[in-house]
Amino acid sequence: MPAMTLNPPDLRPDRARTLLPEAPLRPGQPRIGMVSLGCPKALVDSERILTRLRAEGYAISPDYEGADAVIVNTCGFLDSAKAESLEAIGEAIAANGKVIVTGCLGAEPDYITGAHPSVLAVTGPQQYEQVLDAVHASVPPQPDPFVDLLPASGVRLTPRHYAYLKISEGCNHACKFCIIPDMRGKLVSRPAHAVVREAERLAEAGVRELLVISQDTSAYGLDLRHAEERGHRAHITDLARDLGSLGMWIRLHYVYPYPHVRQLIPLMAEGLVLPYLDIPFQHAHPDTLRRMARPAAAVRTLDEIAAWRGICPDLTLRSTFIVGYPGETEAEFQTLLDWLDEAQLDRVGCFQYEDVKGARANLLPDHVAPEVKQDRWDRFMAKAQAISAGKLAARVGRRETVMVDSVDEAGATCRTKADAPEVDGNLFIDEGFEALNAGDMVEVTVDEAGEYDLWGRL
């Protein structure tokens, strides 16, 4: 039977690798499989579901054949992602037969059951109790409290040395191309003391890098009025400082370029937080941004970038963009190319715009022809690739601290402070690597650069 897989990595740039933990199986122990699609926020949801199941005595199956039922945690952000989710559900049904669907696409149950009427249940995102109810109905638990021991950090689907830390759910923005607020609701921040306690438990379990995620990390705590509780204030700057005190790499994702983001940069210059910002700029032309209804559309982003780099020269900037948005003219696209030339971003991803059911952008006039979108995507990525190659070439000869992600017979695959797992490049060591292990942090000298990756020696 086929192994359970994720969506293809070229569908979404924020793909998270799934590593299902294995444990000895006791007689009669029910086994549940998990297919986790979509972004790291969905991956954290999968980890929470599996943690609850393990606490109730279920084992986790790494393949379809050994599972008594399979949970498919779906992505529903783009129509192409919906299609991949339906394909994954169909694969699970064909291979196993007993399938429970959850996640963002679960907000459209008729869409799922119309394609796959045999699914056992459909639940929406964050509906953990309903998922457990569906599992109980299909595969009753048989817990053994003397055997079914659960690690304090819970079940994780990432390698042991890094973990995603979700600090909030939902989003208050109303971007016209996005339906995330409709699926996941308004911003709901976790109390800061709870976030810090989870980070402490992860550190105790051996995690060396935390990737902080949410829909809008900059807005963290806004719904709580930045309340302080148990010595921790619910504000992104305070939270970053608290997390930075734990001695791990702290990497911030999905940070909107509000003015108060500048307060984070000194923490990066001090070394408390990695000098890395993942900011979804999406476009550069003001008219395009207004049609998108983007927050902070009026912010002078080039000025902000210059100010950030003035404080922290080693800052790495990652972003994603949309080309071919309805109404985008050639002049607007050229503005984006010129902006990219000036901004010199280190890491760049790009989508071709596509309609999403329920999104307000679908109703905008002047949709761009597919061949024009493809041409603009090609031109944009060519420029981004050239910028990346030039920036990496400038790092040859530098000494850098890297995190080892994996080691095989060919060498060690590592990441620098400028690289997030799965979405950025790697640094490869192909000599003298035999004593290295995943999770090690070592010093290397960069001796070769490509368009997206580096090579180095210990």
UniProtKB/TrEMBL annotation:
GO molecular function, one term: protein methylthiotransferase activity
EC primary class: transferase
Cofactor mode of binding and number, as noted: Binds 2 [4Fe-4S] clusters. One cluster is coordinated with 3 cysteines and an exchangeable S-adenosyl-L-methionine.
Keyword Transmembrane on entry: no
Protein name: Ribosomal protein uS12 methylthiotransferase RimO
Keyword Metal-binding: yes
Residue stretches making up the Radical SAM core domain: 157-391
Family to which this protein belongs: Belongs to the methylthiotransferase family. RimO subfamily.
